[in-house]
């Protein structure tokens, strides 16, 4: 028995050696294709394996192989309420753990993350209005001057971003300005490295649902909404949102039609069709006199609405999508009552983001006097909810008010 056991061990060692030699026999192109399928977090550990693997990190052909991977599990770039906190925490949905990118991602404090797409995150300067595009993994960045002049009195409503995964990759940044019904947009394209010369006007679509008309709110008296800070405000005032969500919007592309969705100051969802150069105010999900918190996300080319409301001494957190043909809302998911009931009475707010694929992250935070944070993830395909673990730094819990989703792609360029 002892001899037989020793023999088997020897074969295992030989098999391991054979496997190692097989990897060494691979050509550089084949090896890089194999390595490109590894989870992104493994890329930062490749340099510790051998010199050959380390050289792949800077190889153009390796980055080309990475760009041909259709999609990667999302990482969530978490945003603090305290601007003085310079740490850049992300949640890796592949390894289900937290990572601190502070050593790679040195942000100026006056730049606030406002949009993301593909492997890039867009920051906006709160002082000048300029933009900064950055790959949070590599730290590569590009500065974009603001397309809106300082003497322009049109308020910025939304910032949206879209990227392509074709080689070479490209991206497009869209800004929507003005007040309903006088909306306009401009866009930046990386392929031309320039902003559109003139503002494009958006005309109100006359086929809009009458019940969602912007003027109808004036016929029902004073209307109140739950603000982004958890306070009840009159609809005539602007919704008070955290800085990172002030210009929050999502963009979808279907049949070559680009549509940007954003929340108006009165809480109405506005759909801007950039292809037809028109906008529509979508039907409201709840009567305007009810208090609720709302946010928009995009998953696989579809816009979803996350709605937190309270009825009969219980909280309800639901996900809806728009049936564009019949112009009504279709229920797409609900946080289990046992979990949502814990949110009741806390006057909290939801800030949400859709990840690459089918995952939606919901950040719930309640304001003082009771500070309360929860982070839920919903899988649209599996129809399952999960909760993120707490994040700790130097033994203390770190809390976040919102997040942006990006695909961890080392090959993404600005």
TrEMBL record:
<dbReference type="Pfam" id="PF03478">
    <property type="entry name" value="Beta-prop_KIB1-4"/>
</dbReference>
<dbReference type="InterPro" id="IPR005174">
    <property type="entry name" value="KIB1-4_b-propeller"/>
</dbReference>
<protein>
    <submittedName>
        <fullName>F-box only protein 13</fullName>
    </submittedName>
</protein>
<dbReference type="Pfam" id="PF00646">
    <property type="entry name" value="F-box"/>
</dbReference>
<dbReference type="InterPro" id="IPR015915">
    <property type="entry name" value="Kelch-typ_b-propeller"/>
</dbReference>
<dbReference type="InterPro" id="IPR036047">
    <property type="entry name" value="F-box-like_dom_sf"/>
</dbReference>
<dbReference type="InterPro" id="IPR001810">
    <property type="entry name" value="F-box_dom"/>
</dbReference>
<feature type="domain" description="F-box">
    <location>
        <begin position="20"/>
        <end position="55"/>
    </location>
</feature>
<dbReference type="InterPro" id="IPR050796">
    <property type="entry name" value="SCF_F-box_component"/>
</dbReference>
């Amino acid at each position: 028995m002892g001899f037989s056991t020793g023999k088997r061990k020897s074969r295992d060692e030989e098999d391991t050696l054979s496997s190692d030699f097989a990897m060494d026999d691979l050509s550089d192109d084949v090896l890089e294709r194999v390595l490109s399928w590894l989870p992104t977090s493994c890329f930062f550990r490749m340099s510790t394996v051998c010199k050959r693997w380390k050289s792949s990190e800077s190889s153009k052909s390796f980055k080309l192989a990475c760009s041909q991977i259709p999609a990667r599990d999302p990482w969530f770039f978490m945003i603090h309420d305290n601007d003085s906190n310079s740490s850049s925490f992300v949640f890796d949905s592949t390894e289900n753990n937290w990572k601190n990118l502070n050593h790679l991602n040195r942000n100026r404090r006056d730049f606030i993350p406002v949009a993301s797409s593909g492997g890039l995150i867009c920051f906006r300067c709160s002082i000048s209005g300029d933009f900064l595009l950055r790959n949070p993994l590599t730290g590569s960045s590009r500065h974009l001057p603001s397309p809106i002049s300082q003497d322009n009195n049109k308020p910025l409503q939304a910032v949206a971003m879209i990227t392509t995964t074709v080689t070479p990759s490209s991206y497009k940044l869209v800004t929507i300005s003005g007040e309903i019904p006088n909306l306009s947009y401009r866009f930046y394209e990386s392929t031309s490295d320039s902003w559109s010369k003139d503002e494009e006007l958006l005309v109100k679509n006359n086929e809009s649902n009458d019940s969602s008309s912007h003027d109808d709110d004036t016929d029902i008296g004073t209307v109140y909404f739950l603000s982004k800070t958890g306070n009840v405000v009159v609809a005539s005032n602007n919704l008070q949102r955290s800085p990172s969500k002030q210009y929050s919007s999502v963009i979808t592309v279907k049949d070559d039609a680009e549509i940007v969705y954003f929340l108006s100051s009165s809480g109405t969802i506005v759909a801007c069709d950039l292809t037809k150069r028109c906008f529509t105010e979508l039907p409201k999900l709840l009567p305007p006199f009810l208090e609720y918190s709302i946010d928009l996300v995009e998953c696989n080319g579809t816009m979803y609405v996350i709605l937190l409301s309270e009825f009969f001494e219980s909280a309800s957190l639901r996900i809806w999508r728009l049936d564009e043909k019949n112009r009504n809302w279709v229920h797409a998911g609900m946080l289990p009552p046992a979990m949502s009931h814990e949110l009741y009475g806390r006057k909290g707010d939801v800030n949400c983001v859709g990840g690459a694929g089918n995952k939606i992250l919901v950040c719930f935070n309640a304001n003082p006097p009771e500070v309360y944070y929860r982070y839920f993830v919903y899988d649209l395909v599996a129809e399952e909810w999960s909760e993120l673990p707490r994040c700790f730094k130097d033994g203390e819990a770190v809390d976040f008010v919102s997040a942006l989703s990006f695909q961890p792609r080392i090959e993404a360029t600005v």
